[in-house]
Amino acid sequence: GAGVSQTPSNKVTEKGKYVELRCDPISGHTALYWYRQSLGQGPEFLIYFQGTGAADDSGLPNDRFFAVRPEGSVSTLKIQRTERGDSAVYLCASSSGSSGTSGNIQYFGAGTRLSVL
Amino acid sequence: AQSVAQPEDQVNVAEGNPLTVKCTYSVSGNPYLFWYVQYPNRGLQFLLKYITGDNLVKGSYGFEAEFNKSQTSFHLKKPSALVSDSALYFCAVRDPWNAGNMLTFGGGTRLMVKP
Fold first, then answer.
1. How far is B41 from chain A (nearest CA, A)?
2. What does the alpha-carbon distance between residue A80 and residue A20 come to, in Å, rounded to a whole number?
3. A43, A91 in Cβ contact below 8 A?
4. List of chain B residues whose C-beta atoms are within 8 Å of the C-beta of residue A98
């Protein structure tokens, strides 16, 4: 079956521009996560959706970052006034369950490599 | 707060030899622990997880990991390495009582298996 799909795979933009990154989770997965992976580091949590609502956005670095999931499936990560420090690989993951003790596996997409010039 | 440490940036092993990739964690309560592998230009691929029960868990591609509560470790192991195992490996922890459900990752360990 289809896995987590992220588009575009690469995005090059100029400092100050607005970008949108898209994530299509595995069909039927209610939980969706965004992570950011900087060069040479492990992924860092940004935001978690359960259904349509953001259950935890504590990882968003500042108010330039925003994410939506209006119909509980596809999610878009939006970055305003991009800065060079935003350059990273943005990873999306989905899982089948809600939070709690279920230990559900998070399945990751290939990521979007964002380069801010 | 939860954290993960992978003390080795790189592990080198000869093909056919056993391999170990180290991971230690810090979390309040009992942790959920995961190993993921990342190949170039690919997303993270799940290998195995520990939730509860037997301390030795087996996963994909012949990998296994041993949960050691007293040492707060979850080292990844494989009895006989393959050149195709060369990749970046990430250990991750989740606090099951954290409603955020987030994974906290270590910095990764690059495994190089030489023929």
1. 7
2. 9
3. yes
4. 101
| A72-83 tens-digit pLDDT | 999 999 999 999
In this prediction, residue B52 carries a pLDDT of 85
Could B101 and A55 be called an inter-chain contact, meaning their C-beta atoms sit closer than 8 Å?
Answer: yes
The mean of the pLDDT values for chain B is 93
- At A59, the amino acid letter reads G
Please name which of A25, A41, A24, A15 lies closest in space to residue A114, comparing C-alpha atoms: A15
pLDDT for the residue numbered A113: 96
Question: Nearest chain B Cα to A36, which residue?
Answer: B105
DSSP states of B4-17 as a string? EE---SEEEEETTS
Which residues of chain A does B102 touch, with a Cβ-Cβ cutoff of 8 Å? 33, 45, 48, 56, 59
pLDDT of residue A2: 81
Max CA distance (Å), chain A: 43
Residue A11 has what pLDDT? 98
* Sequence-ordered list of residues with C-beta below 8 angstroms from that of B54, at least 6 positions apart, any chain: none
Q: With contacts defined as CB-CB under 8 Å, which chain B residues touch A91?
A: 43-44
Residue with tokens 């965004």: A34
Extract the tokens encoding A75.
């999610």
What are the C-alpha distances in Å from A111 to residues A108, B27, B53, B69? 8, 27, 33, 33
Among B49, B59, B56, CA closest to B93: B49
Q: How far apart are CA B106 and CA B25, in angstroms?
A: 9
> pLDDT category, B28, cuts 50, 70, 90?
confident
Tell whether the model's pLDDT for residue B43 goes beyond 90: no
